[in-house]
Amino acid sequence: QVHLVESGGGLVQAGGSLRLSCAASGRTFSSYTMGWYRQAPGKEREFVAKMRWTFTYYADSVKGRFTISRDNAKNTVYLQMNSLKPEDTAIYYCNVDTGAGVDYWGQGTQVTVSS
Questions:
Q1: Closest by Cα among 39, 21, 46, 44 to 90
Q2: CA-to-CA distance for 56 and 66, rounded, in angstroms?
Q3: How far is it, in rounded angstroms, from Cα 29 to Cα 51?
Q4: Pick from 105, 88, 104: which is nearest to 10 by CA?
Q5: pLDDT 10s per residue in the chain (115 long)?
Q6: What is the DSSP string of 43-102?
């Protein structure tokens, strides 16, 4: 049974930083793509960043401000978020893409950026 647990969300002022963590359990994830999505109130869930092996991909809206990293020994993926903006306010979800048509999702962590 795969289980993803996000942490690190919270309330921060614009320009501030947060670091999200997602701890995965249930299998070895080193060969899977791990990433982050977010969903703001009234909007659809959108891609934020993902990482497979050493390759990283970012949404244009977060490039230069967010950094994704992972520790395969800990089955954990991180999202360092700097220069946060009010429009970054959303629930952030961890995602594991096995590449075989199976995705796993965490329960989400709230990030709120005040202006």
A1: 39
A2: 11
A3: 11
A4: 88
A5: 889 999 999 999 999 999 999 999 988 888 899 999 999 999 999 999 999 999 999 999 999 999 999 999 999 999 999 999 999 999 999 999 988 888 999 999 999 999 9
A6: S--EEEEEEETTEEEE-TTTTTTEEEEEETTTTEEEEEE-S--GGG-EEEEEEEE-SSS-
